[in-house]
Amino acid sequence: MDSSRRFQPRAAQAALSIIVAESALVAALLCAPAAAAYAEPPPLALANDFDDVAIDLSRYLVSEKYDGVRAYWNGAQLLTRAGHQLHAPAWFTAGWPATPLDGELWAGRGRFESVTATVRDSQPDDRAWRNIRFMVFDLPAHGGPFDARLAALETLLATLRVDWVLEVAHSRVVDQADLERRLRAVADAGGEGLMLRRSDALYRAERSDDLLKLKPYQDADAQVVAHLPGHGKYVGMLGSLLVRNSSGLQFRIGTGFSDEQRRHPPAIGSWITYSYNNTTARGIPRFASFLRVRAECCQERASH
Predict the structure, then answer these.
(1) How distant is the alpha carbon of residue 202 from its chain centre?
(2) Domain with 127 in it: what CATH number?
(3) Which alpha helices (H) appear in the chain, and where do they start and end?
(4) Quick one: which of 154, 168, 116 has its CA closest to 294?
(5) Domain check: are 142 and 238 in the same one?
(6) Which of 71, 122, 152, 233 is the most buried (most CB within 10 A)?
């Protein structure tokens, strides 16, 4: 059953209201100078889409999907998913354990731009970092199944006792209807969606069904082909983007942009993420709406 689509239009509206285009994080943090271009990505577990698989929900633990910046503590440094160093203030990581931590730098629902504006700077702003929390959801080097890793994480963070390093809360759902209620509640509160982790799975640094993401809308990527001019109140600005998806289909995206983004649209050749509600018989996304510019350096295309 495609659970996310049953209440998609209403929940999508709430979820999309928190989403704005990714900004200078793209250029300043992940599209780093030549020396950083060869950074080694950390060994991260990556999620499949919940809609693409049939699962036994009793085997999974569920948590909120945070709209922040994925971060990996390797025991000495905070790294992005692409392997670039995040320049947090020394006090932020003081006393952290030597064991790797997998989590999300987060400032609260609807504050994605605040997070990216904070973590992109090579000279950290102490005041801005005071608003950031490291939401930890896994211990990659533990070696046990997820439920054991979660118990070990709780003990570790209780010992660490750092106010801005928090364990992500996980719980079980009773059935599909319960999962849908959880998703609707998170979306209506301005959250991005849910993550599902198989409780008996070992940590695998690859994409698998052990980790699933569930959002109240569908999203995908496309490359910008052209800027189409606006009319009426958008005269002199972007009207819509002509984009091409991975299947080679071209279509227009004309919604989801702020006025600033219409004045300075994503560059031709860049990749963007858009939301949509199903597809036409020809495979064209229905109700496609701009979400953000892809954050990977030089448009490296690895999804969450």
Answers:
(1) 22
(2) 3.30.470.30
(3) 8-16, 25, 90-93, 112-119, 126-129, 146-160, 176-188, 259-263
(4) 116
(5) no
(6) 71
- Tell which residue, 197, 248, 174, 159, has the closest CA to residue 64: 197
The partner residues of 304 in beta bridges, in order of sequence, read none
Question: Cα 103–179–11 angle (5° rounding)?
Answer: 85
| pLDDT tens digits in sequence order for the chain, 304 residues long | 444 344 444 444 444 443 433 334 434 444 444 334 446 899 999 999 887 567 899 999 999 999 899 999 999 999 999 999 999 999 999 999 999 999 999 999 988 888 988 998 889 999 999 999 999 999 999 999 999 999 999 999 999 999 999 999 999 999 999 999 999 999 889 888 999 999 999 999 999 999 999 988 778 899 999 999 999 999 999 999 999 998 899 999 999 999 999 999 999 999 999 988 778 878 888 889 999 898 653 333 334 5
CA 256 – CA 162 distance, rounded (Å): 38
Please report whether residue 304 resides in a domain.
no
User: In which region does residue 256 sit, left (phi positive, over 0), alpha (psi from -120 to 50) or beta (all else)?
Assistant: left
Q: Name the helix (H) or strand (E) containing 126.
A: helix 126-129
Q: How many CB atoms lie within 10 A of CB 176?
A: 12
Residues 213 and 50 sit within 8 Å (Cβ to Cβ): yes
Do 161 and 289 belong together in one domain? no
What's the DSSP call for residue 253?
Answer: E
Active site residues: 65
Residue 230 structure tokens: 């606006």
Provide the number of structural domains found in the chain.
Answer: 2
235 and 142 in a single domain? The answer is no
In angstroms, the CA 292 to CA 220 distance is 11
Antiparallel, parallel or unpaired: β 133-138 and 165-167: parallel
The order of strands in the sheet holding 46-49 is 46-49, 207-214, 193-198, 60-65
SS3 assignment, position 270: coil
What domain range is 18 assigned to? 3-214
Contact 273, 292 (CB under 8 A): yes
